[in-house]
Specification:
Elements (H helix, E strand, L loop, with lengths): L1 H13 L7 E7 L5 E6 L2 H18 L16 H13 L4 E6 L3 H4 L2 H9 L5 H12 L2 E3 L2 E3 L12 H18 L3 E5 L2 E6 L2 H18 L10 E4 L8 E3 L5 E3 L1 H14 L8 H18 L9 H21 L2 H10 L4 H10 L3 H4 L3 H6 L2 H7 L4 H7 L2
Parallel strand pairs: 1-4
Antiparallel strand pairs: 1-2, 3-7, 3-8, 4-5, 6-7, 9-10
Length: 377
């Protein structure tokens, strides 16, 4: 191990180290489509992490306080709180900027020029440039890259912030109120006319000066309550709610977990759901509006679980015995079994919903979504 480390150190110092191609992986994006990742080798990840640890303290003092992504001590919740403050000040119009395939289109020459203004070590600049231009391996073939810094390596987040710091500085120079999390940037202004003016000039700046592409289909001028930012929507009074898209993604995840043909134990199903509910409620703990809607979602989750548990019984007599074990009378149990048209219909019968009620699910260990969200307020 020590020999390997010494050899690696020597090759880096002498400039003979060769960066390996990254492995190309496409993963589904929440809003549809695919996101391309470039996964470096273990050694290259180690080197990138070391570079990140050294460069981050150098750049951090100069980054904008309005930049919240991929930075120590900063997070999405702070970005939402700042956005809410801007709206409470009357800046209810949002210039919503979406950069098209940002990580894949970063201009290497401009990025290296930015880096060379701060980094004097030629060896370090050479290794960073090698990571930028390393091939993308897919199906045994390496494709050369002339732009971009694909997500997947430890160094990419820092390099993206260095690129977008130029945008932050331009926004500060113009005296604009904004929040940026990675390539997701919202600018808050007081009128539609001003927002449209800002939109036009920023598109020119981003595409002409920064050599990046604005996705005009996704970008636009909108009222704050029409914008989804980091999974939230900020209302015109500064209140914050969970965005509709985030609700939909939660329900899609619940549907995936509770598929009736999965054949996993009910306890395992509850564990998987609890992990989703914990993560979801922790992330969306800033939501302070429309929380009552979560009661309906919670009721829908319980019905999905009832449906799954009933189907586990399989046969009518087994289902009858299960209902009797829940305290349902003999007559009602037979009525449920004999006159229900499918498991989904059965799960909504009064005898079933009363016996498998919220208290029953709590005893089984299911985390109550609405209670977790409302208790954080």
């Amino acid at each position: 191990m020590n020999t390997n480390v010494s050899e690696l150190r020597r090759s880096l110092l002498e400039g003979t180290y060769e960066v390996a191609p990254v492995r190309k992986v496409n993963i589904p994006k929440p809003g549809g489509g695919k996101r391309m990742l470039g996964i470096p080798t273990v050694t290259d990840r180690l080197i990138q992490q070391a570079i990140h640890q050294k460069l981050s303290p150098v750049y951090e003092p100069y980054f904008s306080p309005n930049s919240f992504g991929f930075r120590p001590g900063r997070n999405a919740g702070q970005a939402i709180s700042q956005a809410s403050q801007y709206v409470r000040e009357g800046k209810v119009w949002v210039v919503d900027i979406d950069l098209e395939k940002f990580f894949d289109t970063i201009n290497h020459d401009r990025l290296m020029t930015h880096l060379s203004k701060v980094i004097s070590d030629k060896r370090l600049l050479r290794i960073i440039n090698a990571y930028l231009t390393s091939g993308m391996m897919q199906d045994g073939f390496a494709e050369q890259r002339t732009a971009g810094t694909p997500q997947g390596g430890p160094l990419s987040p820092l390099l993206s912030n260095i690129v977008l710091d130029e945008l932050d500085r331009e926004l500060h120079k113009r005296g604009l109120s904004f929040c940026r999390y990675a390539d997701d940037c919202n600018i808050f202004v007081g009128s539609r006319k001003a927002a449209e003016r800002v939109m036009r000039s920023l598109i020119r700046f981003i595409e002409t000066k920064m050599k990046l592409k604005v996705n005009r289909d996704k970008s636009g001028v909108r009222r704050c309550e029409e914008v989804t930012f980091l999974g939230y929507t900020v209302l015109s009074d500064g209140g914050v709610r969970v965005a509709d898209k985030s609700i939909k993604r939660l329900k899609d995840k619940v549907r995936e977990i509770t598929k009736r043909n999965r054949g996993v134990p009910f306890t395992q199903l509850l564990d998987e759901l609890n992990a989703v509910i914990r993560g979801w409620s922790n992330y969306f703990q800033l939501a302070n509006r429309w929380l009552s809607n979560l009661r309906d979602i919670e009721g829908w989750i319980r019905r999905k679980l009832r449906c799954y548990r009933l189907k586990q019984c399989g046969r009518k007599y087994t289902t009858y015995k299960f209902l009797r074990s829940l305290g349902v009378s003999e007559k009602k149990s037979w009525n449920v079994v004999m006159y229900s048209q499918g498991w989904w219909n059965m799960s909504h019968k009064m005898a079933v919903s009363r016996s498998m009620n919220p208290r029953w699910f709590v005893r089984k260990g299911l985390h109550p979504l609405y209670q977790r969200m409302s208790s954080k307020k």
